[in-house]
């Protein structure tokens, strides 16, 4: 607990539940465990780890995160259905601190078209399901879905019933991103004032960004009396996303004069956590994204640069190091030596063994020959790619692609498969398709491509391309990344990385076989 005399605002992260509901953002168990670990380490109060009834994979993820959590409350989501609540209780029971989060719609439009229930029937559902959840666990959160479009009188009746049945947290979400800050603040103030047992629960905000107001509404809800903020890293979430955790945390920290609250999250983890979520979800962070965007602490204007040189506070209201960003960037080039390269890696947080360092330095030199400027982001991408392929039994050795308007495009690929160099050529509908077909010719498999995404690590036509590839095979999903100044080489490396994670191998005794385990 905080020792500050300010009211504590609890941070409830739902990246692994609401964030993963973004179309195309599914994460593997390993990725979820890594994200949950960094959320726990950074001081997030509550981690909503998933929707246990949704699938066996979701149940397993919530259960494993519950077992491994050190400090955070681990929550699972459940509809107002007995089977959901029981499954959720089973998933979070191993946590040191577990929570069942159950919800039901309350707005007229939801009751008429989605629920086909009357107001009194929904009240009965609340009484029944909240009581059932409380009989399983002491920490129960209840949410009024579409609260901001629910008449205040009925909303108060629902909240009073949920608290009477044992709910310890009441969430009043702006489910469709409809509210304005003034409206959302007033809703909380009215409900807290009108509900006689409101002092028995903590009130929570959960805002979607359909009108770009999620963070503003979240902070307004706190001003109205809420003391828990539900949010996601990078603002990940359905439709336009959720309130961004990093923005909420840094707003409270930076504007403590206007937002007199205490928040336990250590902001130095924010940039690393953002990158981890971006890699796992395959959703790139926009360059001008607040707090964690590539340009959040970048200055190009001469006037801005002049001010920064004289006093950083002229154009920066936060210190970049406070959110895990290096304050300065040392430009590395082809004349840099191994010692300088090793120092730069240490500055960026990488410590490599001798062999890995030697290989990373060789690739750095190759990159420096092809690029005018090598930035910190280039080196990070290069080393992360080197770490990703370390120990893989299937690797890209050489790639030649013939492309143009004449068609068909052709790729000639050499790969190392379990120590054996194999070369195949294939055609395709474009150079990327030809490259992937060549990989399949060497390692035949039935995995389907779910995502192919390219973004430049830095600016310029000589920038490294960082490619994300997501594959699905036999119900399993994996994401691979590759980085190179040649987009096609990056694509091949990313595809092979994803393939390796799925354990798709060419058997020595049967080169055409698919092994999946």
Summarize the structure in words.
By secondary structure, the chain is an alpha/beta fold. It folds into 4 domains: 7-281, Aldolase class I (TIM Barrel), CATH 3.20.20; 297-328, no CATH class; 330-390; 393-515, Alpha-isopropylmalate synthase LeuA, regulatory domain (Double Stranded RNA Binding Domain, 2-Layer Sandwich). It contains 16 helices and 18 strands. The chain has helices spanning 29-42, 56-68, 82-92, 108-115, 119-136, 152-164, 181-194, 214-223, 245-254, 270-281, 302-310, 338-347, 354-370, 376-389, 431-442, 487-501, and strands at 7-8, 10-13, 46-50, 73-79, 98-105, 140-145, 169-171, 202-206, 228-231, 261-262, 394-402, 409-417, 420-428, 448-456, 465-473, 476-484, 505-507, 510-515. The chain has an 8-stranded parallel barrel with strand order 2-3-4-5-6-7-8-9, surrounded by 8 helices. A 3-stranded antiparallel beta sheet has the order 11-12-13. Strands 14-15-16 form a 3-stranded antiparallel beta sheet. Strand 8 (202-206), helix 8 and strand 9 (228-231) form a beta-alpha-beta unit. It is globular, with a radius of gyration of 25 Å.
